[in-house]
What we know:
The complex is a heterodimer.
Chain A: E1 6-13, E2 16-25, H1 30-40, E3 47-51, E4 55-58, H2 60-75, E5 79-83, H3 89-96, E6 104-106, H4 109-124
Parallel strand pairs in A: 2-3, 2-4, 3-5, 5-6
Antiparallel strand pairs in A: 1-2
Helix pairs in contact in A: 1-2
Chain B: H1 3-16, H2 25-40, E1 44-50, E2 56-63, H3 66-70, E3 74-76, H4 80-88, E4 92-94, H5 108-112, E5 116-124, E6 127-136, H6 144-180, E7 191-198, E8 209-215, E9 220-228, H7 232-251, H8 256-269, E10 275-283, E11 288-294, E12 300-302, E13 308-310, E14 315-316, E15 330-333, E16 339-343, H9 355-368, H10 373-385, E17 394-401, E18 407-413, H11 419-432, H12 437-457, E19 465-473, E20 476-482, H13 492-496, H14 498-505, E21 508-514, E22 517-525
Parallel strand pairs in B: 11-14
Antiparallel strand pairs in B: 1-2, 1-6, 2-3, 4-5, 5-6, 7-17, 8-9, 9-10, 10-11, 11-15, 12-13, 12-16, 16-17, 18-19, 19-20, 20-22, 21-22
Amino acid sequence: MRPELARLSVESQGDVELARVAGEVDASNVDELSERLLDAVSNQARALVLDLRETSYIDSSGISLIFDAAARLRNRRQELRLVVTPRSFVGEVLAAVSMERSVAIDPALDDALRAVDAAGGSNGSD
Amino acid sequence: MAADEVIRLEDVQRVTESALAYLDLDDLLEELLDRVTDMLDADTAAVLLVEEGGRTLAARAAKGLEEEVERGFRLPVGRGFAGRVAFTREPVVIADLGDSPVQPVNPLFREKGVQSLLGVPLLVEGEVIGVLHVGSLVRREFNERDIELLQLVANRVALSIERSRLMVQGRIAATLQRSLLPRQLPQVPGLRMAARYLPAADESAVGGDWYDVIDLGGQSLGFMIGDVAGHGMAAATYMGQLRSAIRAYALDTEGPGEVITKLAEFSERMHSRMATVIYATLNLTTWEARIARAGHPYPLLIRSDGSAEFLSDAGGPPIGTVGGQSYDEQALTLDPGETLLLYTDGLIERRGQQLSDGEAALTEVAISAPDEPELKCQAIISALTKDATIADDIAILAVQTVGLHDLLEVKMPASPAQLMTSRHLIRRWVEANNGSDDDCAAFAIAVSEACANSIEHAYGPKDETIDVRASLVNGDATVTISDHGKWREPRGGNRGRGIPIMREFMDEVSVEPSEQGTTVRLTRRLREGK
């Protein structure tokens, strides 16, 4: 019996990768999670939407994962957006480190997908 | 009294003398061979022992025929002179070797010029374990009295050999047994554990009882106790196999019921002996326990209010008895300050006593004994073994959840795998002291961050611990996290964010470095409960 601290599920919606993290993220599982997350994003993907609404706990190591992922994706000209329930615990932790200045945060999944589409549209007109 | 009878009495005393028991086996055999040649006026004497398998005899000690031992002489049971003694289990007398149908296999007898021989079997409970013989260089007829005296010595030799064998086996079993028990129990935030193993007083009765605690990936703990039928090497070895099998099943099975079901199948395939066992898991976040039991005495749950209860649900037969069984689980959630006590039957079973008397005695002492698990185990064992020698092994394992009073002190292994357990324990503590959900979440992350700092910056890769201490004064909750290492300034983007996060959720955060280590102090006023 070895329950996982966090579960990661990834699905593709067109050229957007949608990753959901349910459970707790801390120093004990962040490395594994980070590897699996970046593996899931193909070169063809335009953006990664990371859904943290089911994440019950995240600490500074999880915050680092997000900053690192954002930087790597930016280098590959891919976008990262987060979905976080406002005033949730995870929302407070992200606010404590001013995450919103580096990574876009949306309150609902639809908002995030729409925002990616809009950005994609402008890219397409280049 | 006739003169030869007087001599005989002295002879008997010379071979039964209790002081001989203190000699080790080799010295004892040498001494007895000396004495017997002297008493019987013989020139040679030898002890041969039946080897494993029962088909051959090997020279073990000799006088006047020392080369027999040095050359490692062996002969098949049934052949030659000594072989015949072993085969018939009767004394064999050869008055004249030159004129006997029975001849020694070993040419040494002729080389030495042995003329006459007398051999008797070494018997233990009717089984032949060897042969003792004496020889004479002058031709003589050994008489009834000689045979009787030699048999007396043979009995003494047989007894000593058997005792020495049992002791050696018992010692090996005891050593094996100890090597299979955990040298120390894991340290888990929020739990206090203690265990004891007492071998049976008689070394040859040792073996077969065990306990073990398994770390199931940081979020739950597996613990087991068991008792294999029988004693000695075979029991200790089988115990080791069961213990390893449980460890293996525990890591890829759903729960204790399935683990014991698989263990029973394993035991069936091995056609092995009977064993009783309990395997249980404890979720370290919720303190939910799941217990599966195969024929083993009931676990005892000792509550913090001083009551106690045997957990008798969901049991099945011992493994290695009835095939095709599946085992259920008894589930319960431990409250703060409760103790789950697992033990083997040696603790409660006394000859001529009802089992229920033993259970009643255990309940009584378990309740009145001190709370601290080490002291509790010690007090229980002392009380229940004080009037008796320990006829059977005893194993006992106590697992206790900490009390969540206004003061909480725990030691946490400095490993990221322990972070979750620690923050959930702090969360429980805040909740128990009427903190709100926000308070719980705030302390969970601040304490977790402080612990992560210590793990990453204070210690090398060695096993170290962090002290977490929580106290409540006038509605202000304070948690201190102390390490005993050398603090390095947080570096890199990651840990640099830990302190701002702590400050965000706490009213006060201070970092106090000292020669002994670093203490992070976190304080927050608890907002009213929900």
